[in-house]
Amino acid sequence: VSLSSQHSVVRNALFCLEMAADKEESHVYTKALLAYAFTLAGKEEKRKALLGSLEKEAVKKDGSVHWQRPGKEPEVDLPYHRNRAPSAEVEMTAYVLLAHLTTRPAPSQEELSFASLIAKWIIGQQNPNGGFSSTQ
User: Which spans does this entry mark as compositional bias, Basic and acidic residues (predicted)?
Assistant: First the structure.
């Protein structure tokens, strides 16, 4: 069943999400999900605000971009050993990538460039079988 954005159930759900997005203490994972939801709903102002907030929290390292949980211990670089990120970090980073790429009209060149840095990190999280630790 497809519901339009004008359907009362969808309007009420979006209202609840907008109220949640206005909270200052939102967790980075919540912001990532909200950014994608507002992208799908065509709520450009909310989408841009969340993506701007997320960009300030991004971990930019080795020419890639990702997000991690607050308070996480910094990664230790060990020679010949690469730890893969926990599934929650793969998931939230993937949702931010989706928020950048599924916008209408098509993403700007600047967004595509930033999205490529996110994709680079996600690709680095693949296991030897081509899968991810994420359950999503």
Answer: 62-80
pLDDT at 116: 97
Contact 95, 103 (CB under 8 A): no
| 79 — pLDDT class (breaks 50, 70, 90) | very low
Mapping DSSP to helix (H, G, I), strand (E, B) and coil, where does residue 65 land?
strand
Secondary structure percentages of the chain, helix, strand, coil, to 5? 55, 5, 40
Let me know: does 29 contact 86? Beta carbons within 8 Å: no
At residue 35, φ and ψ (nearest 5 deg) are -60, -45
Q: What is the pLDDT of residues 27-72, one digit of tens each?
A: 899 999 999 999 998 899 999 999 999 999 999 999 999 999 877 6
What is the residue extent of each domain of the chain?
8-75+82-125
Radius of gyration of the chain (CA): 16
